Amino acid sequence: MNRDLDEGLIRERAHALWEADGRPEGCQEEHWYKALMELAGSSVAKPNATRARRSKPAGARSKKAA
Q1: Measured between alpha carbons, how far is residue 59 from residues 36, 41, 43, 55, 62 in Å?
Q2: Would you call 15 exposed, middle or buried from its count of C-beta atoms within 10 A (0-12, 13-18, 19+)?
Q3: What pTM value is reported for the model?
Q4: Residue 14 exposed, middle or buried by CB count within 10 Å (0-12, 13-18, 19+)
Q5: Tens digits of residue pLDDT in 2-58
Q6: Dist CA 17 CA 54 (whole Å)
Q7: What is the gyration radius of the CA atoms in the chain, in angstroms?
Q8: Using H for helix, E for strand and C for coil, what is the string for the chain?
Q9: Closest Cα partner for 31 from 48, 44, 19, 45?
Q10: CA atoms of 18 and 3, how far apart (whole Å)
Q11: What is the pLDDT of residues 39-48, one digit of tens each?
């Protein structure tokens, strides 16, 4: 487990996921893992997806609408 993540935050998120799923029995590991991945993903630097979608080749200019 990533020690940089607070176990309390993981527990709270896992509980929220469990409640959102209708409080099913026997799914605690699944909810814990989902919470861990969500929180780890939010604390790890990821490539900016919106920038990648909007990026243009060097020197490209945007066209103005006529």
Answers
A1: 41, 33, 34, 11, 10
A2: middle
A3: 0.57
A4: buried
A5: 456 789 999 999 999 999 999 999 999 999 999 999 999 876 544 444 444 444 455
A6: 32
A7: 19
A8: CCCCCCHHHHHHHHHHHHHHCCCCCCCHHHHHHHHHHHHHHHHCCCCCHHHHHHCCCCCCCCCCCC
A9: 19
A10: 23
A11: 998 765 444 4
Question: If you average pLDDT over every residue of the chain, what do you get?
Answer: 75
Residue environment code for 17-45, b if the CB has 16+ CB neighbours within 10 A, otherwise e: bbeeeeeeeeeeeebbebbbeebeeeeee
Report the distance separating Cα 25 and Cα 3, nearest Å.
Answer: 27
